[in-house]
Amino acid sequence: MSALSPPHDAARLADDIAEAGQRLARVRAALGRVIFGQDQVIDETLVTLLAGGHGLLVGMPGLAKTKLVSALATVLGLTDRRVQFTPDLMPADILGSEVLEEGADGRRAFRFLEGPIFCQLLMADEINRASPRTQSALLQAMQERSVSVAGHLRPLPAPFHVFATQNPVEQEGTYPLPEAQLDRFLLNIAVEYPDWSAERAMLLATTGVAEAPAEAVLADGELLRLQALVRLLPVGDSVVDGVLRLVRAGRPDSSEIELVRTAVAWGPGPRASQALLLAARARALLQGRLSPSLDDVAALAPPVLRHRLALSFAARADGVTVADLIARLTEELG
């Protein structure tokens, strides 16, 4: 056991993890009844929430990204809002603004009207269609978990999480997120097409007279307790060293991997190491295990690193992909 194992009663911790695993199994089952063929996506969104982070959902239209976030809010007992991002969306449309009101006594005073960001789970739909100014306002609030309007700092609810979506096609008229802003997202979650059997089950379940709704599993405040439990999970030295080997191997200036030195324009920073270790802990709790393993690190390397690596122009011209590069990096885990 390493120094990353916090002091805690071992027997009680084991009981808490076992109970959390059972609760989270019910959460996964509840989501699986309304979201078909996306088990890995469901797990990665839950890992994001358990780790206390924000997620970026990338996939083609019609793959239930919006429905997934709405179902997450219901199942986890969170208040949720959805904002459709457009080029004319202003920061005040998300954060809120002050209005001048006149009372019955004739006195005038400013009153703050909260924007949709004042919720526990925000769906930022097609975030790359908003202007950089609006994107920055959202991402600053994501990082600081508070909003500053007219010189007043207003904290956001706890927990507070954002799931933003991006459409990988139709990039005309969009504003791609800069690398520094992409780094604010804990995981970059790839949403793929479901397989035959899952899509068939989805057709039968959603085109009839009534569609099964999502059902609440967790109550208010339970997610915060689970997030605190994630940080209590002990982590072995082999897992810590594995995270460092993998992330540091992706930096072209210090990597011993030839492909990285020739193909990577810039590599993952320390925030990637933090995200990978915290996400590995969250995945272990999601599966009811006492501590994370190198298998957790390998499984979460793609969503943690795919938005924290940039290929050089020459590498892209040669057909090298980020997925190929991450697969090579995971070999460093042994």
TrEMBL record:
Give every ATPase AAA-3 domain span: 54-187
One Pfam family in the UniProt entry:
AAA_3
Q: Where is the ChlI/MoxR AAA lid domain?
A: 259-327
Q: Which SUPFAM superfamilies match?
A: P-loop containing nucleoside triphosphate hydrolases (SSF52540)
Q: Which CDD domains match?
A: AAA (cd00009)
Cite the GO molecular-function annotations of the record. ATP binding; ATP hydrolysis activity
For this protein, the record's Gene3D superfamilies field holds:
Magnesium chelatase subunit I, C-Terminal domain, P-loop containing nucleotide triphosphate hydrolases
- In Swiss-Prot or TrEMBL terms, this protein is called AAA family ATPase
Q: Which organism is it from?
A: Elstera cyanobacteriorum
